[in-house]
Amino acid sequence: MPFALYLLGLAVFAQGTSEFMLSGLLPDIAAELGVSIPLAGTLTSAFAVGMIVGAPATALLARRWSRRSALTVLLGTFLLAHVIGALTPHFGILLATRVIGALANAGFLAVALVAASAMVGPESRGRATAVLLGGTTLACVVGVPAGAMLGQLWGWRSAFWAVALLCVPALLAIARSVPAEGGDTTTRPRNAWSEARALRGPRLLVTLLVCALANGAMFCGFTYLAPVVTDVTGLAPAAIPILLALFGVGSFAGVVLAGRLSDTRPGPVVAVCGTGAATGWSLLALTAGSAPATVVLVLALGTLSFAVGSTLITRALRTAGGEAPTLAGAFAVAALNVGAALGPWLGGTVLTAGYGYRAPLWTSALLTALALLTALATPEPAARRCAPAPDRA
User: Fold this and answer.
1) CA distances in angstroms from 366 to 83, 160, 276, listed in the order given
2) Are 122 and 388 within 8 A, CB to CB?
3) CB distance 166 to 281 below 8 Å
4) Environment class of residue 89 by beta-carbon count within 10 Å: exposed (0-12), middle (13-18) or buried (19+)?
C-alpha cells in the first residue's frame, strides 16, 4: 500500500475520534449545557445528517479541484469547527459545529475513497478501504477511550481540543505527501450526469439501503453504551473508556477481516457477520446486567459491525465504481450516515418513551435483522461477486 494512503488513514483517525467520542461524553455535555441525554444524543444525529448531505455535495465540488487541495481544505474546515465547538457555551452553536464538521468530514472521506482507489487500482479496493477504515477503528481503540478519559479528567471540551490538535500533523502531511491526482484513470469521471445515471441501478440501491440499516443498528446501540454500562451493568464511570476501547479493538479486527475477504467473498461476510451481529445485540439486551457478558459482547459486536460495514462499502464501489467512481464512494458514505442519523434518533425515541436503556439494544437487533434480510433477499450474482470493477485505462 502507498505511504500516502496511511496519511489519509491518519486524518480519518482524527475524524473518527470526533464522530465516536460523544458516546462517552454525552452525560457530561448534557449536564454542563443543561439539556437531556436524549437531546445531547442529537449531536450524533446532527453529525450524521451533515455527513449525508456533505458526501455527495462535496464529492461533486471536488471534481473541479485537485485531490490534494480538496483534502486539505476539507480537513482544515473540520479542524476549525472543533476549535469553535470547544469554545462555545451554547448547545445550539455546538450542534451547528457538528453539522459543519460533518460536512467537511464527509467530503474528505468521499474524496479519500476515490484517491485510495486510484492509488491501488480496482483489484485492491477492499484492502485500500480497510486501510482508510482502519483509521476509524484505531479511533475506537485509542482516540475514543482517550477522549472519554480526557472528558472525565478535564471536561468534555478537552476532547474537542485534542481532536483539533490531531488534525494539525495530518493536515501538514497531506499537503506535502498526497498526490494531487491519482494514477488510475478509471477514477476520473466523464461527467456528473453519466455517474448519476449509473447510481440508479437496483443492486446498488439495495446495497446502499443495507448500508444504512446496518450502520443504524451499530450507532443506535453504541451511542447509548455509556448509560448502559453505568445504569444497567452497574459499572463505575471509569469503566466506560475501557468498554469503548474493547469495542474499538473488535472494530479493528472486523476491518482486518473485511480487508482480507471483501475482495473475494463479500456475500458470506455479510451473511455470517450480519447474523452474528443481530444475535449479539439481542444477547446484550438480555444480559446487560452481567459485567462479563457485557465485556464479551461489546468486543464481538465491534468486530461484527465493522466487518459488515467495510464489506458493504467495498461492494458499493465495485457495483458502480467503474461507471460512477466519484459518486459511488460518496453515496456509500451518505448511506452509512443515514443509518448513523437514524440509529441515535430511534434510540433516543425509545428512551424518551420510557422503555429503559436496554431498548436501544433491542432496536439495534431489529435493524440488523432487517439489513440482513434485505441483503439475503437480493443476493449478488455469482458472476460479479469476485469480478473487479471495469478498467477504462
Assistant:
1) 38, 33, 13
2) yes
3) no
4) exposed
Q: What is the pLDDT at residue 81?
A: 93
Q: H or E segment at 5?
A: helix 3-33
Q: Tell me which amino acid residue 288 is.
A: A
For residue range 329-371, what is the model confidence (pLDDT) as tens digits?
677 777 887 887 788 889 989 998 989 999 999 999 999 999 9
Say how far apart CA 6 and CA 177 lie, in whole Å: 11
Question: Distance (Å, rounded) from C-alpha 9 to C-alpha 136?
Answer: 8
Helix, strand, coil shares, percent, the chain, to 5? 85, 0, 15
Q: Which three cell numbers stand for residue 169?
A: 500533523
User: What is the C-alpha to C-alpha distance for residues 152 and 171, in angstroms, rounded to an integer?
Assistant: 28
Cβ proximity of 311 and 215 under 8 Å: no
The upper half-sphere exposure of residue 299, i.e. CA atoms within 13 Å in the direction of its Cβ, equals 9
Residue pair 323/195 in contact (Cβ under 8 Å)? The answer is: yes
At 4, list the grid cell: 500516502
11-41 pLDDT, tens digit each? 888 888 887 777 778 888 888 888 888 888 8
